[in-house]
Amino acid sequence: FSHLKRTLKKWYNNVVIPYENFNARFENYPVEVDVLSRFRSKKEQAETLERVRKGQIDIIIGAHRLLSKDVVFSDLGLIVIDEEHRFGVKHKETLKELKTKVDVLTLTATPIPRTLRMSMLGIRDLSVIETP
């Protein structure tokens, strides 16, 4: 979480795709966390999109909905992706476009062969978390 803390200190927006307990982890900190999901009402989505655009949300949690064209970040600093293999080609292309401008942390217990190969060749950095 050190990189996330650094980007928060610089007032960047951060994207976490997805992490279910994130809100609880930050409840004692001055960090604004929200969720953008297709399962929320249109009104709730519109309110969240406006707050993201204005930079009023520090960490936005979601999945594919965060990659929609109507999502505009005021100053994106970090994207955390859990289980990259769940995204289709179109979504991965959108992520590639975002990756040129921000740091990306991809977490997986079952890497897709291409990602694993890129890591093994040194094209992508690789870290192993050995403790639960």
From TrEMBL:
Residues 19-129 form the Helicase ATP-binding domain. SUPFAM superfamilies: P-loop containing nucleoside triphosphate hydrolases. Keywords: ATP-binding, DNA damage, DNA repair, DNA-binding, Helicase, Hydrolase, Nucleotide-binding. The keyword DNA repair applies. GO terms for molecular function: ATP binding; DNA binding; DNA helicase activity; hydrolase activity. GO terms for biological process: DNA repair. This is DEAD/DEAH box helicase. It comes from Streptococcus pyogenes.
